[in-house]
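Input structure tokens:
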């Protein structure tokens, strides 16, 4: 999921550079949403592993 967020972030940068502002805005929004979902799942994974007594790293 983090990989897809990076892909959309790079797409937003390239599209913005080339002048495609609509596409750049959409790609940036998708990248932000995917990154937030990644962070939520990462934190949930850490919490579940900590509750089970396993190492979180």
């Amino acid at each position: 999921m983090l990989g897809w967020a990076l892909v959309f972030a790079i797409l937003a940068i390239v599209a913005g550079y080339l002048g495609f502002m609509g596409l750049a805005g959409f790609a940036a929004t998708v990248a932000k949403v995917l990154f937030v979902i990644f962070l939520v799942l990462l934190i949930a994974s850490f919490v579940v592993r900590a509750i089970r007594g396993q190492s979180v790293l």
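Residues 5 and 49 are 24 Å apart (CA to CA). The mean pLDDT is 92.
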